[in-house]
Amino acid sequence: MKIGLAGIGKLGAAMMTHWHKSNLSIGIFHPDRSKAEQFAEKFPNAHPLTDNEMRQMDIILLALPAGKVISFMDSIIQENSSIAFINMATALPTKRITERFPFCKVFGLKYMGHSRDLMENGKGLFITEDHLPAPIQDLFRPLGEIIKDSEERVTEVNKLATYFAVTTAVEIEYELTGKGYHPAYIKRAIASLAPEVIRAYSEGALGHFAKEIVKEIQESNKKSC
After folding, report:
1. Domains of the chain
2. Pairing relationship of beta strands 144-148 and 124-128 according to DSSP bridges
3. Is 54 in contact with 72 (CB distance < 8 Å)?
4. pLDDT tens for residues 122-148?
């Protein structure tokens, strides 16, 4: 299968990191050829593609901002195109693409999480409403797990997680500032301590001190119900 990646931002780089480890050959496209070449230098399994070469791909991953997906497809698609497109833009429902290009094969596959986490840790989580062909499932196997669910679920979870993460950061900053702690301590608490405690909680690896705090919170929640 000839695979092309349109979009060499944070998500594109995160996916390439793990495809490189699996030695999967991926074609890279960017309208600025020099940027595509610079990106490909980081990954020996990557090779820059021209517009015409991109049109010869079997699968094209659209790791582009939502506002650029339609215009990119307009520039690539030719009559009787057999390319399978993978829409990864969280803010662009796949239905809108299929309405615009009813003659194309378009699959929605959205990443739930932060691209930095995917790059550093792998084991990503991808959501799709579609029955994905085996080659696409195989392509994403090195990246993590695929769950069948509504695309809207990705937006809902991302918004909730972002809201509570920002709320936590603001509250930590407010409390420590009010107690007169050094700015370096406040920065460390937000950038390192809190994220690592949350990660440990998700993995069931909290230390004794943190577990006691969890018990206190749980007991408090029971009393307030």
Report:
1. 3-149 (3.40.50.720), 155-223 (no CATH)
2. parallel
3. no
4. 999 999 999 999 999 999 999 999 999
